[in-house]
Design goal:
heterodimer; A: mainly beta; six-stranded mixed beta sheet; four-stranded antiparallel beta sheet; 12 strands; B: seven-stranded mixed beta sheet
Chain lengths: 113, 113
């Protein structure tokens, strides 16, 4: 079946530090890959996505590249801010008539001033 | 992308009672999804709801506990029946949009006492 594995958390960084959150996946076919963010007390927001190999999704300074050879979709940001403190979920949607999202466990990022 | 209005945003309920959560979308969508997010956990798909047919439930979820209605292409409800404290979670609805990915409602925070 389909699955998403995220690195263990939580992660605590100082402001302006470099961020990498690892995500690997297992899927049949060619899935679409997503990063969602959940700010404290809020619902999920789509952060970025990639729909085919070598695509790079980017938004708000975050980037992730769809690497089919390593089945990975790692999230990066060059300089984090306190406002980036949130829970980040990696997810995939495999092609099919009943497509649905499969989520990783999520990782909590805390950025201190 | 679609805008989803979900209500109530939160509720505190007595055990043994039922709560119906509503999800209204500002555009017509084929499939709507209902997720559960238990405290500190990732999202788990409860069921997929297509208009005009019975919802399709994931393993571990049954219609008697989580009845779903989908009367038209812009609206759905999820009922959490005969609640117990273990049902305390965030419940989210989601829609899939062509080329846009998945959009989520802001969630319903349910506490069962």
């Amino acid at each position: 079946g389909n699955s998403v594995t995220q690195m263990e958390g939580p992660v605590t960084l100082s402001e302006e530090a470099f961020l990498t959150i690892n995500c690997t996946y297992t899927a049949t076919g060619y899935p679409s890959l997503f990063w969602y963010v959940q700010y404290p007390g809020e619902g999920l927001q789509l952060l970025l996505k990639a729909t085919k190999a070598d695509d790079k999704g980017s938004n708000k300074g975050f980037e992730a590249t769809y690497r089919k050879e390593t089945t990975s979709f790692h999230l990066e940001k060059g300089s984090v801010q306190v406002s980036d403190s949130a829970v980040y979920f990696c997810a995939l949607s495999a092609p099919g008539a009943n497509s649905k999202l499969t989520f990783g466990k999520g990782i909590t990022l805390s950025v201190r001033p | 992308s679609a805008v989803i209005s979900q209500k109530p945003s939160r509720d505190i309920c007595q055990r043994g009672t039922s709560l119906t959560i509503q999800c209204q979308v500002d555009s017509q969508v084929t499939m709507m999804f209902w997720y559960r997010q238990q405290p500190g956990q990732s999202l788990t798909l409860i069921a997929t709801a297509n208009q005009g047919s019975e919802a399709t439930y994931e393993s571990g979820f049954v219609i008697d506990k989580f009845p779903i209605s989908r009367p038209n292409l812009t609206f759905s409800t999820l009922t959490v029946s005969n609640m117990s404290p273990e049902d305390s979670s965030i419940y989210l609805c989601s829609v899939e949009e062509y080329r846009e990915g998945y959009t989520f409602g802001s969630g319903t925070r349910l506490t069962v006492v």
